[in-house]
Each structure stands twice: as structure tokens, then as C-alpha cells.
TrEMBL record:
Organism this protein belongs to: Paraurantiacibacter namhicola
Low complexity bias (residue ranges): 16-35
Region (Disordered): 1-50
Membrane-spanning segments: none
Name recorded for this polypeptide: AAA-like domain protein
Pfam families cross-referenced by the UniProt entry: DUF87
Helicase HerA central domain ranges (all copies): 179-413
């Protein structure tokens, strides 16, 4: 079939097929049985797109399970390029949508690639099937669109441009709760919606290289979710302090000044990460001593007496002084030949934690009371009090315990969901910015507890009503399997080849044509595919109001370097804050 130019193929087939296909191919096409309507009754601008859209642009050559090979007529594509409908104007181009007539409706496909057919004057292209819809007999419109294919076309079937009215039917909400976050490319009036329950129910990931507008887009999505669910429960880990400005009116901001996370909430593994400083065999010896002494310190609390049997992981308040005393007691029981170094290491580290002002948000003597329920209510926004999102700014947390703090927060979300199953507690969305720092791939793995708990949430969280949102600019540095657990992937421009390949491996087959355009996306554009959308779409994000944007804009070097005055005072104030360590 490819020996014959596509133009000639159309003329051979249109005698039998085009008479039926033309009036049905475009929703605005006039019925053949209405000759009384004069051609000049409609404006010329409206008639032109109908004429272009109702004519085929190619034919199907080969059929496969997920896609097909088609031949496109170069002359028809040139004619369509001048159409006032942007969807028709892009017909046949990589990333555009085309439709194929089937026995009882239309099949929608996305153009993946193009190449010149050397044996003819046409173009060969690969397409990926996206879904199908039935045809309204009177209007020819697509209705009841659904993902997947039940009836394939046959070789020789005609290809038509997908029009903006077609795409409006395809992208129309099916009645499920949705948030609108932008405009479907290439149109300027079709709103892009994401189904909240589907997106959150199976986790989501927002990916994009630095400078593509990732933080602003994340803020936009979270603002839309908060508007749709003002009584929601969202916890966001913010490693750079960017999102405080974006949610100062609609969320509650926590940092080292007001987080007040009690140290006794840490389980044994997290205690080891914070207190143990040794490695190898020494670390195991120190851990054995810490486990014995920690259990003894927890056992002195009245709660422990009421519960009867407790473990070293039980979130029972204890005094740091009781832990120090227990260590000293154990050291006093030693004979002279036994090494006291492990005990001294533990005592020294405890004294450092109690005395260092940087750790006061966690290891303060004021945090010994049983405030667990109060802390959970405050962090998880229960009740939300009109502020459904809590921003946990960990930029001021000492770097050596940042991952442990994130691990505690993540584990508390998970444990709360597990132990609250009988209460049917409300679902919680946990959002991690810079996710590759906490769930690193195998080559960067450091065996930290935060990686294990986030991986477990990714695999099991949806069973317990936990949704995970991962935001990262380096998806290839994420742990293997975590990205594949995300049912919805929102990918902005990725400049690194490894990152692009990693994302393509995690996305479904039908999105290939869209994925190839990831390196060519503009700022604040993305590809969305997965459970949160009916079919993969390319979206231009809405502009976010200035007051709702995160503080993540790149500085203008030329503007700032051309300003002068007050540098000495600024340096002195900076040094003062530096020395005070945030006090």
C-alpha cells in the first residue's frame, strides 16, 4: 500500500467511504439532507475549519495491539496548518491527536513519530491508541469517551483530524470530583482537569528540572486541592522553606521555632540514627546498650505501668535524665576489665543533644509531657479549622537529623492510619519535596529509616488511606519501584537523558508520543498521564496569584549586582543570625 502516494489512496477509497464519513467527521458539519440552508448563512471563518476537519488526512497501514502505522498526505497536512482551529492546525504532528472511524464510533490516537515515505510523497507515522467513543448519529459528535480499545480499525481506514469540539467531549469531566489546573495544549479554552480521588488514591509524582516552574506548579495543585477540600488533611515536608509564603493564609506553618516534636516519639531505629556515632561492630554494641537503657527509661513512666508490657518502640514519654541515669547504672555494673567506651559515647552524645540549641525543637526539657494526641492533631490538621495543609519547614533543622525528622513525621502518618482503622480516620496526603533525598536509589542508599518508611507508604499506604505526593527534579535518583507505585505522573521538562528514560519506563505505553515531547516542554507546561486523567494530556498550567506563589524565584544577578548600599550592616546582621543559630 505504501507504493501508492497517500493522496491517490484517498481518491481510491473516498468513493465508497467518504460519503458516509464526511458528514459525521466534524460536529459542525451540515447534514447532507438539508440543502435548504444556503452556504453563505454561516461565516466563512466557521465553514473553513469544518471543511478541513471533514476531509481525511491519511490512512491506516498496519494495526498492532497498542498502536498502528499510518500514512499521512503532506498536502492535506499543509492545508490543515492554516485552519483557525488549533487542534486541526496541528493535525498529524508529533503529539497531536487524530481520530479513526470505526463501525460504531471513533477511535482516538496520539501521533508518536513521523518519517518520510521514500516510496511515495507522503509521511509515515506511528500512533498510540488512547481510547474510543460512540458517535451521536444526528450530530456526528464523540460521546461516552473511555480509555482503551474494544474494536480496532482495519488497514485502509481513514484518518481525520481531531477538532477542538472533539477534544472538549474527550476531556470533559465524567462527573467525578476534579480540580482544574490549566489548559489542554494546543487549545486555549479546554480546561485540564485532574480527578482528585484517582490521583490521591494511588499516589502521584511531580517531576521537572530546576527552573521549569515545578515549585509554583506544586503550589497550584495543592491550592486547588485545598479549595476543593477545605477540611482536608495535608502534610508537606518543605526542605528549603519555599512554601511558607505560598500557604501563609491557607495553611499552618511549622519550623524549628514552633514544631515542638517530642524526642520520645522516636522509635528505636530513629533513636539509633540520632544518638549512635560509631560504626561497624562498635555500633552494634552501642545499640544493645541503648535498647536496654531506653526500655528502662520508658518503663519509669506511669503510662508504662498502666499498659503493663511495653517495647523499646512504644511512644511512651521518658526523661532524658532517666536515660542518662540508666546508662550510668549499666556502666557501674561493669567489672574493671570491661570497656566503658560505648557507655561514654552514649552519655557524651546525650549531653550534646541536651545542650545544643539547634536541637531544642526536639530535645527540650519542656517536651516531656504526654502531648502525643495534641501533636498529631496539630500536624495532621484534625480538625483543619479552615487550614487543611501544614507546611513542615525543615530548612532550620540540623542536617545530620533532617532525614530522621522526616522519618518520624512519615512513620507517624503511617502508624496513625494503621492504628486508626477501626475509627475510619480521614485520609492524609503526605507531600515530599526533594523526594530523591529521602528515598534514594540503591547506589545512593544510606540505609536510613526515612527511605524504608516512604517506600512502605508507596507500596501499602493506599490500603490505609495514605496518599503520597513526590516532588523531585531527579527522578532517576529515586528508589527503584517508588515511581512505578505512583498512579499519576505529572512530568514537566526534564533535561537529563537518564531522567527522561526513567520516567518513560514508569509511564504507560499509550503515552509514548507525549513522553517524546518532555525535553521540548516550555516552562509551566507538563505531561499528565495515569489514573488522574482520562487519557494522557499536555497541559499549560494556570498562572498563580503572586500571594500564593512559593519563594522559589531565581534571583536576577544583574539587577542585584547593580544595587549598592548597606552591605556592611547586612553582613553584620547575617553574622548575628548565623551565630544565634535561629534563636
Amino acid at each position: 500500500m505504501t507504493d501508492m502516494p497517500p493522496r491517490q489512496q484517498f481518491s481510491d477509497q473516498q468513493g465508497s467511504a467518504n460519503a458516509q464519513a464526511q458528514p459525521q467527521a466534524h460536529p459542525q458539519a451540515a447534514p447532507q439532507s438539508a440543502p435548504q440552508r444556503p452556504p453563505q448563512a454561516a461565516p466563512q471563518a466557521a465553514a473553513q475549519p469544518s471543511e478541513c476537519a471533514s476531509q481525511p488526512i491519511g490512512v491506516v497501514l498496519e494495526i498492532a495491539g497498542s498502536g498502528s502505522m499510518i500514512a499521512l498526505d503532506l498536502q492535506r497536512l499543509t492545508e490543515c496548518a492554516d485552519d483557525c482551529d488549533p487542534s486541526v492546525a496541528l493535525a498529524g504532528q508529533v503529539g497531536s491527536q487524530v481520530k479513526i472511524k470505526t463501525a460504531d464510533g471513533w477511535l482516538l490516537a496520539s501521533v508518536r513519530d513521523q518519517k518520510q515515505d521514500r516510496r511515495s510523497e507522503g509521511i509515515l507515522a506511528s500512533i498510540d491508541f488512547m481510547g474510543e467513543g460512540t458517535e451521536e448519529k444526528l450530530t456526528g459528535k464523540i460521546s461516552g469517551f473511555r480509555r482503551g480499545v474494544t474494536r480496532y480499525p482495519i488497514p485502509g481506514a481513514l484518518i481525520y483530524p481531531a477538532t477542538t469540539p472533539d477534544l472538549k467531549q474527550i476531556y470533559a469531566s465524567d462527573g467525578r470530583s476534579a480540580i482544574q489546573i490549566g489548559t489542554v495544549y494546543p487549545t486555549d479554552d479546554i480546561r485540564a482537569g485532574v480527578y482528585i480521588d484517582a490521583m490521591l488514591g494511588k499516589h502521584f509524582a511531580l517531576l521537572g528540572s530546576t527552573g521549569t516552574g515545578k515549585s509554583t506548579s506544586a503550589a497550584l495543585i495543592l491550592h486547588r486541592i485545598c479549595q476543593a477540600a477545605p477540611k482536608g488533611h495535608i502534610v508537606m515536608v518543605d526542605p528549603h522553606g519555599e512554601y511558607s509564603a505560598a500557604f501563609k493564609n491557607t495553611g499552618t506553618i511549622f519550623d524549628v521555632s514552633n514544631l515542638q516534636m517530642p524526642y520520645w516519639l522516636l522509635n528505636f531505629e530513629e533513636h539509633c540514627e540520632v544518638i549512635l556515632t560509631s560504626q561497624g561492630n562498635d555500633r552494634q554494641a552501642d545499640a544493645d546498650i541503648l535498647a536496654k537503657c531506653l526500655l528502662k527509661a520508658r518503663g519509669k513512666n506511669r503510662l508504662a505501668e498502666q499498659l503493663g508490657k511495653i517495647t523499646v518502640d512504644s511512644p511512651i514519654p521518658y526523661l532524658l535524665s532517666d536515660l542518662s541515669t540508666a546508662i550510668a547504672d549499666e556502666m557501674g555494673k561493669l567489672d574493671k576489665a570491661t570497656n566503658t567506651a560505648p557507655f561514654m559515647r552514649l552519655k557524651t552524645k546525650l549531653e550534646e543533644l541536651k545542650g545544643d540549641p539547634r536541637y531544642q525543637f526536639m530535645f527540650s526539657g519542656m517536651l516531656v509531657g504526654d502531648t502525643m494526641a495534641e501533636f498529631i492533631s496539630k500536624i495532621f490538621r484534625m480538625p483543619s479549622d479552615g487550614k487543611p495543609i501544614s507546611i513542615i519547614d525543615v530548612s532550620g533543622v540540623p542536617s545530620d537529623i533532617t532525614s530522621t525528622v522526616v522519618a518520624v513525621l512519615s512513620r507517624m502518618v503511617f502508624d496513625f492510619a494503621i492504628w486508626g482503622r477501626e475509627e475510619k480516620t480521614a485520609p492524609i496526603l503526605l507531600v515530599c519535596e526533594e523526594a530523591h533525598r529521602y528515598v534514594p536509589c540503591e547506589k545512593n542508599a544510606d540505609g536510613s529509616s526515612v527511605g524504608r518508611i516512604l517506600s512502605r507508604i508507596a507500596k501499602e499506604g493506599r490500603k490505609y488511606g495514605i496518599s503520597l505526593g513526590l516532588i523531585t527534579q531527579r527522578p532517576s535518583d529515586l528508589a527503584e519501584g517508588v515511581l512505578s507505585q505512583c498512579g499519576t505522573i505529572i512530568s514537566m521538562r526534564l533535561n537529563n537523558d537518564r531522567d527522561q528514560a526513567f520516567v518513560k519506563a514508569a509511564m504507560p505505553e499509550g503515552a509514548r508520543g507525549f513522553l517524546d515531547s518532555i525535553p521540548a516542554l516550555r516552562n509551566r507546561e507538563c505531561i499528565i498521564c495515569g489514573e488522574g486523567v482520562a487519557i494522557p494530556i499536555r497541559v499549560s498550567f494556570d498562572n498563580l496569584e503572586e500571594s500564593k506563589r512559593p519563594a522559589s524565584e531565581d534571583p536576577s544577578f544583574t539587577d542585584l549586582w547593580n544595587q549598592s548600599g548597606g552591605e556592611e550592616d547586612a553582613v553584620l546582621r547575617t553574622v548575628q543570625r548565623w551565630r544565634a543559630q535561629g534563636k
